[in-house]
Design brief:
Layout (H helix, E strand, L loop, with lengths): L1 H21 L32 H14 L1 H4 E9 L5 E9 L6 E11 L5 E13 L4 E8 L7 E11 L2
Antiparallel strand pairs: 1-2, 2-5, 3-4, 3-6
Length: 163
């Protein structure tokens, strides 16, 4: 919870900083009677065109941003091995680094690579789990890889946002 509050405060400060730079403020004083000195502790803008957003509005904007690009926030870390019956076993974790967005049903691109570093085959595998914001979720899948497989590359393609 402290982490979410810290992120919220950080976003508010960033947005306030962006608003001041977009308005053309610089280090030279402005003789306009509506201007607020840069060292002022008052975060409320004087101009009605600059509306300070509430924490809930900022959280909603962040949620929309995070939901629009799941692969940017889902970090895969996996290893693979052959078991006794020659199946390829992929074990890993997916870390959801999003602040507020939760996802489900992550689609992994699994590429089987030969000894000569040639992609033999690529398939998409779905990990049917919920991936909560800020949490790491383990997974284990068994596949039948081509016999010439020397390594496996696994990337997150996409996921479905949880409502």
């Amino acid at each position: 919870m402290k982490y979410l509050n810290f992120i919220s405060v950080l976003l508010i400060l960033l947005l306030l900083g962006c608003n001041s730079s977009q308005n053309g403020s610089n280090s030279t004083p402005n003789n306009n009677s509506n201007s607020i000195p840069e060292n002022s502790a008052n975060p409320v803008p004087v101009n009605s065109s600059n509306v300070t957003k509430s924490e809930e509005q900022l959280r909603q904007e962040l949620l929309v941003r995070e939901r629009s690009n799941p692969s940017q926030f889902l970090i895969n870390n996996a290893t693979w091995k052959k078991n006794l019956i020659k199946q390829t076993v992929i074990e890993g974790t997916i870390n959801n680094t999003a602040t507020v967005a939760n996802f489900k049903d992550v689609i992994l691109n699994v590429t089987y690579v030969s000894q000569t570093n040639t992609a033999i085959n690529t398939e998409q595998i779905v990990v049917y789990e919920n991936f909560l914001a800020g949490k790491t979720t383990p997974y284990k899948i068994k596949v039948n890889a081509p016999s010439a497989t020397n390594s496996v590359q696994i990337d997150v393609k996409s996921a479905t946002p949880l409502k």
